[in-house]
Amino acid sequence: MLRKKGYLLILALIFVFSISTIAGAWWIFGGNEQATWDKIEEEGKIVVGMDAAYKPFEFQDENGEIVGFDVDVLKAIADKLGIDLDLQNTSFDGIIPGLQANKYDLIMSAMTITEDRKKAVNFSDPYFDASQVIAVMEDSNDIKSVDDLQGKVIAVQLGTTGDLEVSEMEGIKEIKRFDTIPEAFIALQNGQVAAVVNDLPVTKAYIKEHPEVKIVGEALTVEQYGIAFRKADTELMEKVNEALAKLKQEGTYDKIYAKWFE
Questions:
Q1: What is the pLDDT of residues 204-213, one digit of tens each?
Q2: Which intervals hold domain Solute-binding protein family 3/N-terminal (predicted)?
Q3: Where are the alpha helices (DSSP H) in the chain?
Q4: pLDDT tens per residue, range 17-52
Q5: Helix axes 234-250, 33-43, angle to 10 degrees
Q6: Burial 112-129 (b: 16+ CB within 10 A, else e)
């Protein structure tokens, strides 16, 4: 009899554990649509994942504070929603897995909207137009267009659309992938690579401080940036889209753009 009771107790515990596990998985993978926004309202803040090494979109200033175009747009969105910001600096190649693991509520990190990424996350309405360009040293004459990348060693940031674009090219001698884009440019300046393929606004910002680097050829792509959300968080996405639309209508977005790009 005691053995039977013990057996039944074990079965009951297994059942409770199974239900808890299923409930947890449901929250993570599809049932947290209401819960995420409720959590944000309750805590009074929104947690954002970004790779703060991508000037002028997100980077750390001399005081270690994360600043940039994306940050200012986020602050304006947060003001519209009546909440505070909690910015989490993270590597770009692991940023979508981090979102899916609930480390933050959304991603805003100069992320290009792509079909592959849409399989993993939902995107807000586009908030920035960009493109991929080729950067070389000012005294370089070997590379003038994309055709000249054949047989060369090219630097990119790991997991970016620059990485994806170069990976599809034929005839590249080697692709060196770096965790941050400043590391890729340092490799260029040290002669470790022949060129860097990267987003135009970030490359232009780097050239302002390093005129020994130049852009060559035409843009390789036409891209748009979006804010990324977990698939279930449609309510949060709608609220962010509404706030973003208001910022554009009232001229706040244009003022932020002028601050960082004009």
A1: 999 999 999 9
A2: 45-262
A3: 2-29, 33-43, 69-81, 95-100, 115-118, 161-167, 181-189, 200-209, 234-250, 252-261
A4: 444 444 444 344 444 445 899 999 999 999 999 999
A5: 60
A6: bbeeebeeebbbbeebbe
Give the whole-angstrom CA distance, residue 207 versus residue 111: 21
Which of 106, 118, 145, 113 has its CA nearest to residue 129?
113
Radius of gyration of the chain (CA): 22
- Domains in the chain, CATH or no CATH each: 33-129+224-261 (3.40.190.10), 132-221 (3.40.190.10)
Whole-model pTM over 0.90: no
Distance, CA of 155 to CA of 86 (rounded, Å): 31
Q: For residue 200, what is the DSSP state?
A: H
Here the tokens at position 62 are 């001399």
**What would you measure as the largest C-alpha separation in the chain, in angstroms?**
88
Q: Indicate the SS3 state at residue 58.
A: strand
pLDDT computed for residue 61 by the predictor: 96
The two tokens of residue 146 are 């994309």
Residue in 58, 80, 84 with CA at minimum distance from that of residue 71: 58
Residue 34: its pLDDT value, please?
Answer: 53
Cα-based distances in Å from 261 to 31, 57, 117:
40, 10, 27
The identity of residue 129, as a single letter, is D
Helices 252-261, 69-81: crossing angle, 10 deg rounding: 160
Please tell me whether residue 220 adopts helix, strand or coil conformation: coil
Q: Coil, strand, or helix at residue 149?
A: helix
In the predicted structure, residue 127 carries a pLDDT above the cut 90: yes
